[in-house]
Write a structure and sequence with these properties.
The protein is mainly beta and 375 residues long. It contains two helices and 30 strands. The chain has an eight-stranded mixed sheet with strand order 4-3-2-1-7-6-5-8, covered by helices on one side. Strands 24, 25, 26, 27 and 28 form a five-stranded antiparallel sheet that branches. It has a four-stranded antiparallel sheet with strand order 9-10-11-12, with no helix packed on it. A hairpin with a 3-residue loop joins strand 21 and strand 22. It is globular.
Length: 375
């Protein structure tokens, strides 16, 4: 096929779709416009080349001869769908939905747009559809469409990974055999590791201002973030089931049976600041300024960290483990009640939005605005 030129179709030959069926070896190229993923990005010219099952784009046609200078690429097997996006201003917009993200594309003519949509739909085995016909659940998002995936540890160690924590360019892994490992993102092998127990797993790793707190065998140990060397000979606290971290990273609350122990980080290291009694063992919790939202087997409570006073939030009647998460950008709480998620403002104790429904009760939940990810 001849190369396309901006805005012109007199010397452009568009293939009939039957010619393209079942051909991932198809070579097809031309000038389109692509919009960046940020809110304030605008459409810019990009020269697209589909070759050998991979779609790549460059700043110009002249640059397309060098694969190494491509501005981006997408394997056709990762394309989930090609969607027509109607435009009130008469632009020829469409969208490529992939396992990585959504790409907003604009052609220079209707023929341009139709040809590319047809080509991409055929080679990827997906469907070409109008935006109005696309059914999208408001509460379920493909995790691949929300976050980019980067595999930097190609081979998992022999022992099962049971906990993970990342801070900056470092990733800490906790293994089922009681070992903590440190991986810089530029390495595929750990730079150091620490054996904390021979029989019990490292169930939780929490980064703080000057150390990494590790929960293993019921004991909380503070480790140096670079060497993983324990900061003291004895653990901070024993018989602990949960660590609730404060956003300041200089304060944590430790759940010790039916008690909540407040620890603060000062010049002398970690010291105990307060101890509160609990009605039961807290399973989950988050900080909200001077308050903590605690999840118990039967209920959610809001507790003042200074006085220990508690307020009822919700009953948890279905018997599933309670999960609670703070959405920092909106100052809302997300409480999991079995297959239902409730969003609320803790200040007025009012539900702030319609409930979220999941197919199954989640066992873990996390948040990266504007997405919530759950297992």
């Amino acid at each position: 096929y001849q190369r396309r030129v901006r805005g012109g179709s007199s010397n452009m030959q568009v293939p009939e779709l039957p010619e393209l069926l079942g051909s991932q070896q198809l070579h097809y190229e031309g000038l389109l416009q692509k919009k960046g993923n940020n809110m304030f990005d605008h459409y810019q010219d990009r020269y697209f080349v589909l070759d050998n099952g991979v779609l790549r784009w460059w700043a110009s046609q002249a640059a397309s001869s060098d694969v190494g200078t491509a501005r981006g690429s997408l394997a056709v097997l990762d394309i989930l769908g090609v969607v027509d996006v109607p435009s009130r201003s008469g632009n020829f917009n469409f969208r490529i939905d992939s396992t990585q993200c959504k790409y907003n594309i604009r052609g220079y003519s209707q023929q341009d747009k139709d040809a590319w949509m047809g080509v991409l739909a055929q080679v990827s085995g997906s469907t070409s559809q109008s935006q109005g016909a696309t059914v999208t659940s408001p509460t379920h998002t493909d995790i691949g469409a929300a976050f980019e995936t980067n595999i930097f540890i190609p081979q998992i160690p022999s022992s099962q990974i049971v906990s993970v924590c990342s801070i900056g360019d470092r990733v800490y892994l906790g293994r089922a055999d009681g070992v903590v490992m440190l991986y810089p993102v530029t390495h595929s092998t750990p730079t150091t590791h620490r054996q904390l127990s021979s029989k019990t797993p490292v169930v939780l790793i929490v980064p703080t201002r000057r150390s990494v707190l590790v929960l293993c065998n019921g004991s909380v140990t503070a480790l140096d973030p670079d060497t993983l060397k324990p900061e003291s000979d004895a653990p901070m606290l024993t018989a602990v089931s949960q660590i609730i971290e404060h956003e300041s990273r200089v304060k944590v609350a430790l759940v010790q049976k039916r008690k909540l122990v407040m620890m603060g980080l000062g010049s002398a290291g970690w010291t105990q600041q307060a101890e509160m009694s609990l009605p039961a063992v807290a399973i989950s919790g988050v900080w909200l300024g001077r308050q903590l939202c605690l999840g118990f087997k039967r209920e959610y409570l809001l507790m003042d960290e200074e006085t220990g006073d508690m307020q009822d939030l919700f009953a948890n009647n279905d018997g599933t483990d309670p999960l609670v998460m703070k959405i920092g950008q909106t100052d809302e709480l997300l409480l999991v009640l079995g297959q239902i998620g409730v969003l609320m403002h803790p200040q007025d104790l009012q539900v702030s939005r319609p409930q979220i429904e999941w197919r199954h009760p989640p066992t873990a939940i996390s948040h990266s605005f504007p997405y919530s990810a759950l297992i």
